[in-house]
Amino acid sequence: MKHVSIVIVNWNGKNDTIACLASIKAMKKSQIVLDTIVVDNGSTNNSVALIQKAHPWVRIISLQNNLGFTGGNNVGMKDALSHKADLVWLLNNDTIVDVDALSLVTMFDDASVGVAGSKIYFQKGHEYHRERYTKDQQGKVLWYAGGLVDWANMYASHNGVDEVDYGQYDTPKETHFVTGCSFMISRDVIERVGMLDEKYYLYLEDLDYCIRIQRAGFRLLYIPTSRVWHVNAGSSGGAGNTLHEYYMTRNRLLVGLRYAPLRTKIALIREALGFLYTGGKIKRQAVIDACIGKWGKQYDPKNTAN
Question: 258-272 burial, b for 16+ CB within 10 Å, e for fewer?
Answer without folding.
Answer: ebbeeebbebbeebb
